[in-house]
Amino acid sequence: AMITEKSAALYARAVEVMPGGNSRTAVYSSPYPVYVRSGSGARVTDVDGVERIDFLNNSTTLIHGHAHPEMVEAIAAAVGHGTSFGMPTPVEVEYAEALSARNETFEHVRFTSSGTEAVMMAVQAARAYTERPKIAKIAGAYHGAYDAVAVNNDGSGNLISHAVTGNPEGVVANTVVIPFNDPEGSLEVLRRHADDLACVLIDPVPWRIGLLPASKEWLDALREFCDASGAVLISDEVGSYRVGYHGAMQLLGAEADITVMGKVIAAGMPIGAVAGRRRFMSVFDPSKGKPALPHSGSYNANPVSMSSGIASLRLLTPQAHERIGQLGEQARGSMRTALGEAGLDWEVNGLGSLFRVVANSAPAGYDSAAAAMKALYWKLLENGIHIGDSGLGCISTPMGEEEIAEYAVAFAKSLGQVLAEGRA
Ligand SMILES: *Cc1c(COP(=O)(O)O)cnc(C)c1O
Q1: What is the pTM of this model?
Q2: Whether the predicted pLDDT of 259 surpasses 90
């Protein structure tokens, strides 16, 4: 059995001072989470001294793995010069230039300290630009904690604007939901609200509803609707930017008005970015009098995050994207083979360096597909691999063939153990 004594002891202390011992829902696992001591490259070591290959990389954020020497150097150098100021710094200009150069639609860029905030600012920018109240989002998709987008975000995908508990009725009424990859179904909803819609907010590779890429047909339908109605097309690529050098939309043959990024664009320091066509981004411009949308934040464009971002983008060459994309394809292939040989109808989805095992059915001995997925998560941990307990994983640039081969062996072994224990 797995040794997790020190994690259990830490969790016992944590429950005394934090609700459920937790400060981030996504990292909780029952009966308690495994606490990490350190990470290096593709690997993490937990507090009991057990080393594993990390395929979760902080919810896909750490595209260069842990403590990458060039990242550490850039961040440490920035910290040594002061961590934040009530003045702009040269690195924010350099970083904005680097990000803007990646996609022709990233004409103007604005920084926040998290993806949640960046989504919030993009939605508010669309409202300020259009002077309309409503937003449309994909049923089931996750866009962070902002209340306007924390509607129907549980992955279920049913077409009702249901709230997280406590979300006011007015907020819920102003968020309408559209079915992913269904052009007719989406247009039917959008047309009904066309005069009131500030934006259509999508994630082109939405992980919570299965990590399938958006179809060209659906993206074209949304683009056409937005052009005709004046709604702003916002692409939340906080998670999915990593699928290609130019981001997810360009890879899928589409164009957003505003793109929201985060996670890998700084790969370890707090970050969010709103990037888009000048006409939309002009709502933030304070140089011509009070802007339509004033936007401040004590840590916006702080030099530590900016320096981390510059280092991350420097390492994220087109070749790096290509290489981790190929490793992602290999990883997906090995999982599909193992599932096929086990006679299980689960899917493995994803694009580029992102993957997700989608548990469709409960094997013998399990109450639900999710319970079997959780069992697989714990078996993988026992066998030296860390992925998300929802089946989410990704490739980082320090990984190579060796890590993918180890992963394939551990996945097949863990799956076999899960099924055998269910039958026993
Ligand atoms: C992670 C994520 C967010 C939230 O970003 P944070 O930096 O965690 O606040 C928003 N949207 C998507 C698609 C994400 O994957």
Answers
A1: 0.97
A2: yes
